[in-house]
């Protein structure tokens, strides 16, 4: 083993930079946080080629004098803490004193800064961590930091960067989340000289949400506000249950004005939506927690993206309770005595099956459980004369689907059928999911799926990150039958959808694709994406619990299920049908 040596300053700085500066978004994060800590009310972020070529952050904060500017480029130099005890009550975004030297170690950086009391500013030119030039600078009070050729001296790190579009999307995503944390600050983001996002700085969180997601989504947000004690305050906005996504990326958690990654708080938010969202779907939410600093440890992650909370269980319960209370107050939930009684408001939408007639709850006793002509031709011998007419018998083409006759509907979600071997209970939602899944999957088959042209093109407003993600995979998406046009301001125009897909859900289909492509570590697989897209579309379009079906609708569904390639499970693996044999029934009635 080689002898132990002290690393030279350049190597040590590059190692430190590796902990803090992972990608261009890391640079933007550190510089933005410095600007906010400096009291800036207006911040401009300009990025070229995803930040790999150039990043410029301008602010109107307090600025620095020449001495502090030089000290800021040294490791472990900071104005935000003085002693170990300060680490237990952090109130600023940055405090480690390694952001500027770490960035300077892996880039060519220019720092310009001026205090309000000075008649002029100064500039420092730094390359690879070394100051190579300095002098006076004509500028308004504040700070301007320009970072060029990021990772020019660490090619091993640079080769693992994503495309400029992807990196720019990550930058925009973080700027938006920081704007949510500080709605009183006006933040402008420009990528390749095109304005992507502008936070108005009005102090209204909903204005920030509208500026990024669009006014339509902002109108579907419900305010959350609660204060279970003087140590905790909960604020934010959550989406109505009709608005949901295929992953948790749109759940933003802010703690003491800092954007953090917190799976536990995200889970607490999802728990509040218990029974309100389809399986595998997640809400859009912005939750801001103000906790006394002594209960928050922000010194557990080099980039400060994770925190440790004291009284964690109380906080999570309070978050879930506050979100649930807001949903109930907005008349989105029927309140019950406990989670097991919480149910969504049932919607009897127009059926997706051929007939459009429905049964009402008043008709249940006479028309569902006791049909006028109950089909019984498959009952045991000797009982055929019980009814005048037998119903249709459904048999699977492959022979494995049991022959059965429809008896009636057992609300809220089951169909009852009789067969030679006993009673069959069919989950109408799962059964319809399977039928639709196979239909949609067939529409996406082959290397190039057929398209249906929309009579009216659909404008879909996406975030900068989402639009760049779709654009990066546009050929892959086009092979699925989607016809998309990309315009400025992150507007995507949907002109065509895969054949046989519901034409009114173009935006939801794009969100399903984005959710799939945006999963960390996932590389696009056509087969997996086809399954994901078809399963999500089928889940949304399938008849729901509580929807009454006429006899014709129920029989049509059973015919379609019998003809399916795999009629026994839904796309998510849940059973569509269960069987109770005559022997089991006899045992239950003590006849054996």
From TrEMBL:
Entries under SMART domains matching the protein: DNA_mis_repair, MutL_C
Keyword terms: DNA damage, DNA repair
Molecular-function GO terms, alphabetical: ATP binding; ATP hydrolysis activity; ATP-dependent DNA damage sensor activity; mismatched DNA binding
Domain MutL C-terminal dimerisation: 406-549
A cellular-component GO term for this protein: mismatch repair complex
Residues of the DNA mismatch repair protein S5 domain: 209-328
GO biological process: mismatch repair
Entry's family note: Belongs to the DNA mismatch repair MutL/HexB family.
The protein's role, per its UniProt record: This protein is involved in the repair of mismatches in DNA. It is required for dam-dependent methyl-directed DNA mismatch repair. May act as a 'molecular matchmaker', a protein that promotes the formation of a stable complex between two or more DNA-binding proteins in an ATP-dependent manner without itself being part of a final effector complex.
NCBIfam families: mutl
Stated name of the protein: DNA mismatch repair protein MutL
């Amino acid at each position: 083993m080689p002898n132990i040596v002290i690393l030279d300053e350049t190597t040590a700085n590059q190692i430190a930079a590796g902990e803090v500066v992972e990608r261009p978004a890391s640079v933007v994060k550190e510089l933005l946080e410095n600007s906010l800590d400096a009291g800036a009310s207006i911040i401009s972020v300009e990025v070229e080629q995803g930040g790999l070529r150039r990043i410029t952050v301008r602010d109107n904060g307090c600025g620095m004098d020449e001495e502090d500017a030089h000290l800021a480029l040294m490791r472990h130099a900071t104005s935000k803490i003085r002693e170990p005890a300060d680490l237990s009550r952090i109130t600023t975004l940055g405090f480690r004193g390694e952001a500027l030297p770490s960035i300077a170690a892996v880039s060519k950086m220019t720092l310009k800064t001026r205090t309000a009391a000075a008649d002029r500013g100064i500039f420092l030119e730094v390359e690879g961590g070394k100051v190579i030039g300095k002098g006076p600078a004509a500028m308004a009070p504040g700070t301007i930091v320009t970072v060029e050729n990021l990772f020019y001296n660490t090619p091993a790190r640079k080769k693992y960067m994503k495309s400029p579009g992807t990196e720019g999307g990550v930058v925009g995503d973080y700027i938006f989340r920081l704007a949510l944390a500080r709605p009183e600050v006006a933040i402008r983001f420009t990528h390749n000289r095109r304005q992507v996002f502008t936070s108005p700085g009005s102090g209204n969180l909903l204005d920030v949400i509208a500026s990024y997601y669009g006014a339509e989504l902002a109108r579907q947000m419900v305010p959350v506000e609660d204060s279970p004690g003087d140590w905790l305050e909960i604020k934010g906005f959550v989406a109505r249950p009709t608005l949901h996504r295929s992953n948790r990326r749109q759940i933003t958690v802010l703690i003491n004005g800092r954007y953090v990654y917190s799976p536990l708080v995200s889970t607490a938010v999802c728990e509040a939506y218990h029974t309100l969202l389809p399986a595998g779907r997640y809400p859009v939410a912005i939750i801001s927690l103000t906790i006394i600093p002594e209960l928050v440890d922000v010194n557990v992650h080099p980039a400060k993206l994770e925190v440790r909370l004291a009284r964690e269980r109380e906080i999570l319960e309070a978050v879930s309770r506050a979100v649930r209370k807001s949903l109930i107050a907005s008349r989105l939930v029927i309140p019950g005595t406990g989670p097991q009684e919480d149910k969504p408001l049932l919607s009897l939408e127009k059926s997706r099956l051929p007939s459009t007639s429905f049964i009402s709850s008043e008709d249940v006793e006479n028309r569902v459980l006791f049909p006028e002509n109950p089909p019984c031709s498959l009952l045991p011998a000797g009982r055929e004369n019980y009814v005048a007419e037998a119903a249709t018998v459904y048999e699977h083409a492959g022979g494995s689907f049991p022959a059965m006759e429809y008896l009636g509907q057992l609300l809220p979600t089951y169909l009852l059928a009789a067969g030679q071997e006993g009673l069959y209970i069919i989950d109408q939602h799962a059964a319809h999911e399977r039928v639709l899944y196979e239909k949609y999957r067939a529409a996406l088959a082959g290397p190039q799926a057929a398209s249906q042209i929309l009579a009216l093109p659909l404008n879909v407003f996406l975030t900068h990150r989402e639009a760049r993600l779709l654009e990066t995979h546009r050929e892959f998406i086009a092979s699925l039958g989607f016809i998309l046009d990309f315009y400025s301001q992150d507007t995507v125009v949907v002109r065509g959808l895969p054949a046989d897909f519901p034409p009114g859900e173009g935006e939801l289909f794009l969100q399903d694709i984005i959710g799939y492509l945006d999963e960390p570590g996932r590389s696009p697989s056509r087969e997996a994406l086809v399954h994901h897209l078809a399963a999500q579309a089928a889940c949304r379009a399938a008849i729901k619990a509580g929807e009454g079906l006429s006899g014709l609708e129920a029989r049509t569904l059973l015919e379609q299920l019998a003809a399916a390639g795999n009629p026994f499970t839904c796309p998510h693996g849940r059973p569509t049908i269960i069987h109770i044999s005559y022997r089991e029934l006899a045992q239950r009635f003590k006849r054996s």
